[in-house]
Amino acid sequence: MNMLISPEAAAWFKRELSLQNGAYVRLFPRYSSGGGLHPGFSLGIATEPPGRPAVQFEQGSLIFYMEEQDLWYMEGYSLSIVYSEAEDDIEYKYESVPVAGGVKE
Predict the structure, then answer these.
(1) Where are the beta strands (DSSP E) in the chain?
(2) What residues have CB less than 8 Å from 32, skipping those under 6 apart?
(3) pLDDT grade, residue 97 (50/70/90)?
(4) Is 64 within 8 Å of 5 (Cβ atoms)?
(5) How far apart are the first and last CA of the chain?
(6) What is the pLDDT of residues 41-68, one digit of tens each?
(7) Is 88 exposed, middle or buried (0-12, 13-18, 19+ CB in 10 A)?
């Protein structure tokens, strides 16, 4: 699983969550009525230090990560978080990742 956060999205997190340099942002699946990759779940955020990080990405002096137990949500996908100026909000973009050793056409 790859994770990419645009500099503009990192600046949004910093501003909206009043984060200092070096702060951690945890991304995790949570129950929701909306939809993300899986019905009934969406991607949540928390500002807490990692316990058992499996993936992390630093951008804008913030450290974004996902814990080992949360990786099931992203299985087969990479994640990009970008800033939408029109909405003054962030967007999660999921991209399917080809399975290694898969069938070739």
Answers:
(1) 3-5, 24-35, 39-46, 53-59, 62-67, 77-84, 89-96
(2) 40, 41, 42, 44
(3) confident
(4) yes
(5) 24
(6) 889 999 999 999 999 999 999 999 999 9
(7) exposed
